[in-house]
Amino acid sequence: MWTRRTVVEATALAGVGLLAGCLEDDEESADEPPEDDDAPADADEGGQTDDLEAAIADHDPVDRTDAEEVTIDVAPDGELRFDPEAVLVEQMTTITWRWPEPGYEIYPIESPDQCGWAGDDHGSGHSWEFPFVGTYEIGCTTPDDEEFTGHLFVTEG
């Protein structure tokens, strides 16, 4: 005879059996993306390739890979630019931006995903060591709300 308890037990057991079939590790699982054997060897986990060499060639940066510290002037002589506008450094080089007066803000526009640098808008300068290899596009907003950009290229040290 079917009682409420028997129906609940039978339903629960049937549900567990169906669910167990969904949870098995299947090599052809639709839940997992297929491996991309055609992905470039230097692709990061997100599938994006940071073509550092091409970016360096496009921007012709000033090479400061031999320096432990590099200073970048912000808006030199009132010009809306960084000096140098593009610079190549090794990992963990200390980069110091100096601006002529309070009210300037520097910030990352693009950077490697793992980089935690958020920029700065205090005082008359800011220093940071960049531990991650990659291309960084740096933005700047002036006290008059004008903007310009520059590039930092970090290579393995």
From TrEMBL:
> Which stretches does the entry tag as region Disordered?
22-65
Compositional bias of kind Basic and acidic residues: 56-65
Superkingdom in the source lineage: Archaea
Compositionally biased residues, Acidic residues = 23-53
- Entry protein name: Plastocyanin
Source organism per UniProt? Natrarchaeobaculum aegyptiacum
Organism classification: Archaea, Methanobacteriati, Methanobacteriota, Stenosarchaea group, Halobacteria
